[in-house]
Amino acid sequence: MVKKSGYNGPRNSRIKRQRARRRKKMMIRAGAAALCLAAVIGAVSGIRALVGGHKTKNQEHITSMEETLPQKLKEINGISVKGLGYEETVAALTKGYNWNLSVSYKGKTEKLNNLIEARTRQYLDEICTQNMEGSYTFDLLDVSELAKEEAGRLAGIWDQKPENSTLDHYDAASGKFVFCGGKDGVVIDQEKLAADISQAVKDQKLDQSLSAEGNFQAADSDEAVQAKYKTLETFTTNTTSNPKRNTNVRLAAEALNGTIVQPGEEFSFNQVIGPRTEEKGYQAAAAYNSGEVVQEVGGGVCQISSTLYRVVFETGMEVTYRRSHTFEPNYVTPGQDATISWDMPDFRFVNTSEGAIGIRASYADQKATVSIYGIPVLDDGVTWKLYSEKTEEGEKPEPQYVEDPTLAPGTEKVKSNGTTGSTWVTYKVIYKDGVEIDRVKDHEKIYKGHAPVILRNTGTTQVTAEAGDVTANGQTTEEAVTAAIPVDGMDDETHSGASRTDGEMSQSGTQSSTAVSETTGTETVQTTEAETVIEPEPVVAPAENLSETVQQIPPL
Length: 556
Known about the structure:
Blueprint: E1 3-4, H1 11-23, H2 25-36, E2 73-76, E3 79-80, H3 86-94, E4 102-105, E5 108-111, H4 115-130, E6 134-137, H5 144-158, E7 166-171, E8 176-180, E9 185-188, H6 190-202, E10 209-211, E11 214-217, H7 222-227, E12 230-238, H8 243-256, E13 259-261, E14 266-268, H9 269-273, E15 284-289, E16 292-297, H10 302-315, E17 318-321, E18 348-350, E19 357-364, E20 367-374, E21 382-393, E22 400-403, E23 412-416, E24 422-432, E25 435-447, E26 453-456, H11 477-483, E27 504-506, E28 517-519, E29 524-526, E30 532-534, H12 543-552
Parallel strand pairs: 2-6, 4-10, 22-26
Antiparallel strand pairs: 1-6, 2-3, 4-5, 7-8, 9-11, 12-20, 13-19, 14-18, 15-16, 15-30, 17-18, 19-20, 21-24, 23-26, 24-25, 25-27, 28-29
C-alpha cells in the first residue's frame, strides 16, 4: 500500500494545489495511461535482471514503459526523484543495500533474488499506474510477501516427495515379482524460511547464508504397498496334442511371463514377444496363406494373445488394438479372440492402474494360462465379463475339388463337409456385487466358413498311392489331399503380401467388406493385411472355455 508523507506544505498551498488539480482533472485522466506506459525500454532494461535469472511474480512490471515517472512526483523516502527515469529511481532508492543473501540446504546453496530491488519496483509500479504526485514514503525492507514467494521457489527445488516401492522386476528363480525403490521424502519448512529471510532483510544482514529446514516424510512400507496388489484375473485355455504347436505356445508364454507394464504405458504383444523365428526355437506348422496351406513358423502363438486379451479386458484395462481371426477359433469363445502376426496385426492395451502391473504366463500339460498381478482398476465390488453370442449363421462356401488319382475313375469322395460362416456379437457385462447392472455391445465379428473338400478322379485310370508319390504341382499325393482340408480351430495369423476381405464391427457400427478392421472396443480402424491361418491341427477346447461365458452370463 502506498503511504503518503505527513507534510506537504502550508494548508493554503495544499488548497491551491487541490483546486489546480480539479481544473486539470480531465487532462490528467487523459494523459494517465500514456504516462504510465512510460517506464522502461532501452539499454538499461538489462539492469533489472535479477541474480540467477529468477523472477518473482511481483517483479514482473510493465516493460513497454519509457524511462519516465509521473512528472509531478517529487521525492520518495526523502530522496528527490524529480526528473529521474525509472531505472535511475530504482538505483537511487536501493543505493547502499548490497544484496548477497543466500540459503543453503544439505550442502546446496541458492542465491536469493534481490528482494529489496523487487520491493522497490513493486512500489514504483503502483505509483506509475496511479499517476501519483508529490512526496511518498514506503518501507523498502518490508519483503514479507516476496520472502514467501522465494521460500516457495526454493521448496520447488529441494522438496522431495516420498517414493513408495514399486513392482520392479520378476524373479524367475522364485517365480515372484520383486518390489523395490522405496525412498522417504522431505518438505522444506516454507513458513520458517520466509520468516528468516524477512528478518535478515529487516536487520539489513544482506550477506548471510541462511539455512533451510526440511520436514521428514516417510514413504509407505513395502508391506503396505504390496497389500494393494493381488491377482486381478486369470484365464486358462486348452491347446492341442501337436508337439510343434505346443512348443510355440510354450515359447510365447515364456517370453510374455514376467512382463511389467508401467502406469499409463501401452503394452504391445509383438514388441514383447518379438519375431517368431526358428533361431528362437519356434516350429513350423501348416498354415493358411491366401487360402492355401503352407508351412509357417510360429503357429499357435495366437492362443497366448487371445488368452491375454480375455484377462486384460476383464481387469478393466483399456484395449487399444485388437483384431479377430478370419475363421472361428475353438480354443476361446468366438468374438473373444485376438489374432497377431509379425509385425501386424498386434494386440495392445494401456495400463490404467495406479501402479505397475505384472503379467504371468505359462504352458503345461496342454494348457495355456495367463494372469495379471496389480492394483485393481475397477471399483470395489465391480467386475467386467465378456459375453459373446452367435446372432447369424452364414453361408457355406462353394466346394473345393481335389484330384485324387487313387480313387476309381469318375468317382468322388467327400473328405470334409466344410463349415458355414457366422456372426458373433460380444458384450461387456458389468456386475456390482455379483448382480448385473449393465450390458454394452463391444463389437461384432463376421467369421468366414470353410469350403467343403471333395476328392475326385477325373482321369481314366486309377493308381495305387505310395508314400512320396509326387503330383504335377510338386506335392506328394498325401500333401495335396491334406492341403485342401480345412480344419476347425486353425489360427489365422497374418503375414504381408495379400489382402483381407473380412470385416468386423465395433460400437461405432462401421463395417468394411474390403478390409479387415481392428476392434478397440470404441472404434473400428480399417487396415489391410495378408491372411495366413496357422495350425491345421484341430484344437480341442475344454467345455468350460467355450461355454462358461454363456453359462455364467445368460442373455438379457
